Amino acid sequence: VETALARLPKGYRVIAGNAGVELMPLEAAKGAAIRRFMQLEPFTGRRPVFLGDDTSDENGFETVNAAGGISIRVRPQGETAARFAIADVASAIAWLAANFNDGFEQTDRSDLVA
To answer: What is the domain count for the chain?
Structure first.
């Protein structure tokens, strides 16, 4: 990892994940992306909802929390900034379907269920 990081231009960081690490530009964070989305129509003035299952999602949870949104950690392992937790992917899909069913079409995605 350190060798790969040394080959990249300055401005990258290492984020430890559940199954490896991510090398990410400093300005490229999930929180920054969420802030940008929330400035665009049709997201302006809405409550953000963010689900994630990795330590690299923590920045997104913090951003959503600061905006008064709903942050959910899927399969939590240890500390998290998310305000809520869901046990697994199947439960996350069921929660989304129950709460955002307007225009939500669930297809057979059994390949996604862990």
So the answer is: 1
